[in-house]
Amino acid sequence: MQNPSFKHLLGIEHLSCEEIELILQTTDSMKEITQRSIKKVPTLKGKTVINLFFEPSTRTKLSFEIAAKRLSADTIGFSSATSSLSKGENLLDTVKNCEAMLPDVIVIRHPCSGASHFVSQHINCSVINAGDGINQHPTQALLDIFTIKERINDLKGIKIAIIGDIKHSRVAHSDIMLFTKMGANVFVSGPGFLMNPFISVLGAKICDKIEDAICDADVIILLRIQKERFGNGVIPSEREYAMLYGINMNRIKSAKENVIVMHPGPVNWGVELSPDIMDYNNNIILDQVTNGVALRMALLYILSNQGERE
């Protein structure tokens, strides 16, 4: 397969296994660029990428900006606090005005689930979902699977445990769909009030006990408690959460030897992860950050050139 059939990246469900493999192969090529002494190529010179972030972000926002610049694309940042949204402009008006500036790709993060789908239906340029509410975060899932495959090439049959706030995690939703599509077995665990009972529809097995989820796991992914989604006071004690659902060096002994530990960030050390995990050899959280740039370079390359193939 030479060219992908998708114009936008809105979620995982519409990607075929062939398209996923193409994205991962392209990411591998882009990672080689990021390891050069001069980390810039003229591949997307003359292309324009607009980053519309309606929520706070560090890793995703910075990695998209760096990815575009390393490919020599022009990048335009957006802050909702200093935009016309504060004057009453709505989302559709904002993206229509952005489209009128003739960008090639719009990257959007928004607190409302489905926002990226809505935007893609009203503009002609490519749209990348950088996280929409509690729905999906497809680029995080793709960089997660790329990072895992650097350590475990064949995902078929491996056990991946996802622990924490499953209910509010767009990362968990995208990860589960992607991992199961590629043949992995996904087990999830977390407090009952942070568990989505319908998550099994996506292909995950729900474990009431964290020990059942991480037993013989090849990969453990921890999730942040997203207090901004439900407010304070729901969790009685962070210390209690850490004791019941946090991962430390003692708890991972029941997983596979050299189990991989991951986290989409930001990490609340001492809550979902014990500080002793910082020095664990297979803690690959920073590898995820590094690979996030290469993965987003790959997507910008693929989608920026999509219009030329149509």
Low-confidence stretches: none
- Rounded to an integer in angstroms, the radius of gyration calculated over CA atoms is 19 Å
> Beta-sheet strand percentage?
5-15%
Spatially, the strands of the biggest sheet line up as 7-6-5-8-9
The sequence of SSEs as H and E is HEHEHEHEHEHEEHEHHEHH
Please identify the top-level CATH class of the largest domain.
Alpha Beta
Structural class: alpha/beta
Number of domains: 2
The fourth-level CATH homologous superfamily of the largest domain is: Aspartate/ornithine carbamoyltransferase
Q: Identify the CATH architecture of the largest domain.
A: 3-Layer(aba) Sandwich
Work out the helicity level: 25-40%
Could you tell me the mean pLDDT? 91
SS element count, helices: 11
What fold name stands as the CATH topology of the largest domain?
A: Rossmann fold
Shape: globular
Question: What key attributes describe this structure?
Answer:
310 residues; four-stranded parallel sheet; Rossmann fold; alpha/beta; 9 strands; five-stranded parallel sheet
Please outline the helices and strands.
Blueprint: H1 17-34, E1 48-53, H2 59-70, E2 74-79, H3 91-99, E3 105-110, H4 115-120, E4 126-132, H5 138-151, E5 159-163, H6 170-181, E6 185-189, E7 204-206, H7 210-214, E8 219-222, H8 227-230, H9 238-245, E9 260-262, H10 285-304, H11 306-309
Parallel strand pairs: 1-2, 1-3, 3-4, 5-6, 5-8, 6-7, 8-9
Helix pairs in contact: 1-10, 2-10, 5-6, 5-10
